[in-house]
């Protein structure tokens, strides 16, 4: 425990080490391309006309600035049957997690470098999401507004839940894409603070699982 005049007693978290990194971003869809973009001073934003098609009046069709993720390797990382039913955000999560585990495109879970180094029972998933998949939310809301309850698809609704992509990644990781069948899994969905909350939660859940019989 630590304490001083500015704060009450605060429990110290166990020490953690970053053993892998996976990135799927508008600036780059791998560690190398992302850091190259930072080094070159490139912007992740660009003007896009198609994104404003749903805006009202004269705003429709006007270019808007946005950061968009291009092809990020989902076809090589996720089976076609699963990918067809999976929101794009969940696909991004899985591709980034596979890269963090050191899995090359098309490689099976047993090839993960972290598995050989630490063992499958020491791997888990703690995934944070800010707003979830907005594409599904917009699709469901638009169909409801235009056609009423009968037009709102029950197949789309689950993907409007903020943590849907996080949960899909966790469930998928427990099966095939990520080798964590017996490890701790959790998701955090607290809007703009999801990153901070997830970083705080990860060492806690990992430490608690390590000392629980």
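^ Assign residues to that structure.
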């Amino acid at each position: 425990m630590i304490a001083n005049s500015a704060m009450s007693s605060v429990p110290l978290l166990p020490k953690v080490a970053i053993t892998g990194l996976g990135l799927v971003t508008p600036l780059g869809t791998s560690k190398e391309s992302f850091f190259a973009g930072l080094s070159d001073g490139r912007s992740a934003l660009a003007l896009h006309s198609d994104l404003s098609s749903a805006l009202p009046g004269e705003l429709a069709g006007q270019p808007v600035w946005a950061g968009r993720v291009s092809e990020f390797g989902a076809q090589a990382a996720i089976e076609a049957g699963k990918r067809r039913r999976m929101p794009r955000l969940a696909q991004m999560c899985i591709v980034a997690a596979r890269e963090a585990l050191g899995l090359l495109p098309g490689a099976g879970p047993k090839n993960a470098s972290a598995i050989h180094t630490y063992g499958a029972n020491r791997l888990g998933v703690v995934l944070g999401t800010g707003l979830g998949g907005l594409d599904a939310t917009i699709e469901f809301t638009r169909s409801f507004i235009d056609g009423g309850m009968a037009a709102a698809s029950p197949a789309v609704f689950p993907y409007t839940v903020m943590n849907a992509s996080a949960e899909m990644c966790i469930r998928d990781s427990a099966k095939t894409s990520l080798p964590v069948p017996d490890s701790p899994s959790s998701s955090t969905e607290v809007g703009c603070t999801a990153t901070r909350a997830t970083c705080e939660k990860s060492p806690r859940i990992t430490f608690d699982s390590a000392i629980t019989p």
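The first strand starts at residue 2 and ends at 4.
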